[in-house]
Model the fold of this input.
Amino acid sequence: MALRLRKSFKSVFELPILANVLCNLRSHHAVLQTSGKAIFTNPPFAFLRRRTNVTQNTFISTANNNVVETTWTRPEGHSTGITVYNSLTKNKVPLILQRENIASWYTCGPTVYDSAHIGHASTYVRLDIIHRILREFFNINVVMVMGITDIDDKIINRAKQRNDNFQKLAQIYEEEFMVDMETLKVLPATIYTRVTDHIPQILEFIQEIMTNGCAYVSPNGSVYFDIQSFGIHRYAKLMPHVRDDPSREVNTEEEKRHPKDFALWKAAKSGEPWWASPWGPGRPGWHIECSAMSSAIFGRSLDIHTGGIDLAFPHHDNEIAQCEACHQTNQWTNYFLHAGFLHLKDDSEKMSKSIGNTVTIQDFLQQYTANQFRMFCLLKKYRYNIEYSRETMQQACNVVQTLSSFLNDADAYVKGHITCQSLDEYALLAKLMDTQHSLQKSLADDFDTKKGVDAILDLVYMCNIQLNKKAQGTTSRSPDVIAAIAIYIRKVLTSLGLEMTSKQGFNSEKSSHVLSQVMDEVVEFRKNVRDFALVRSSNTSNPADKSEVKEKKKERGVLLKRCDELRDNLSAVGIQIKDRGAESTWEYTETKPTNPAS
Done:
């Protein structure tokens, strides 16, 4: 069984988890090799489960005059202090984990048949932000599994178009996806699972569903999930209104007993890849993949399941039905969190390859930075749809620039390069404490990053007002206060996945340190040339002296012009020189796009 563990764990607190994982993986793999049975008797992360007493809450949904009863069991375990919008309940509920400070999380990964676009990126970045919030702000160790679909109709068709092997095609786009995610600073999953590596588990999973009377074999050797045997009233817990929408009717092959039945195993077709099974050669259906792979790792219970809102029906609803039928449970996953989809301006349709309204991640990154895209995602609640346009991206760029500029100004103030009126230390420290409280409260309220960023910007605004007041006479300085605020803001932004590169960041590596020294020399040389060109002189009432100064300024004007050109040229590549009276400083800022979004 091929499982890929991420390279490193966050802290020593995760080491016991890793030890359990490795021990269980060895045992699990041995069972698969020897008998092919007991796939779910000792899943690698079964230790994450906790048997508890439960209380039930019943939610009634109506769709087309049909009553659909959805019973959600509020878990007993360990409260996180967070409330989340649970797609199973359609409201906010407390996030309770089965084990203290450990979250078992499965997320649907890509179908690797083409380059990923920014619609995909928005989902993964927004879920990454939630991952980081749990880890950095609430001290929760997240054990995340991402399933990768590497066999599918789309992959097969694309491989045929290119006269290529489907496995080679899938590998190319999986590797490209991983590079894209790394570039966007998305944390790696703990484990990546591929469908083609889990055929034995999928077969066992299907067999268990059949044993429990919720699946049947068609005359041509396909296996279908039996909606009627499972119970139509139990089906489509996430989106019952979509289930009963005639326009969303799934294909109605004659071999199916009910129009809502869906394929668990597809009988082999000529020219397509296949695997042997008890029902004949074929390959897995799409929905069974995630159910089987998640269960192979976590067993019959899961804390969190995530994906884009477009996957809620039929994919996630079918996952729920399959797992409840296999594990004989009424609640497989405790929380479903769905990210809203990305759409273009004046186009309410989600970005989709089938529609042809996509922008690839690689093309996007030719125009904008990973930081700017992450801020674009932070400025909207994760479960809301998000509009991609020139205006929304410019807003994100402006926020990144505001934050970066403040951090650089704070650094300059602490070093004495900025002089201003005495700061109101009490007001600034009170605002810092209020911001810390507001931010934590916002993140605990269904990960409301929009309110969190607004709180940070309010703090920056207050600081900027005081730093921009010109000094009059003798003033006192408060470098410790500004440093404390800057440290807090930088820590928050870093925890959310933003890399706020500054002059300070240039000193972190040897090559960058050399560049920093070079820039210091360049700025000092430019300052001396600029001072020479400005002909700084003492006040005089002598007309001859004034005339001489005026003549020198005229002669040296070309030097001043060249100083301005140097400043502008460096600004274009992200290095900003600021002339602060008799002092000049430099800082690194992210370059703005030259080709704005459409």
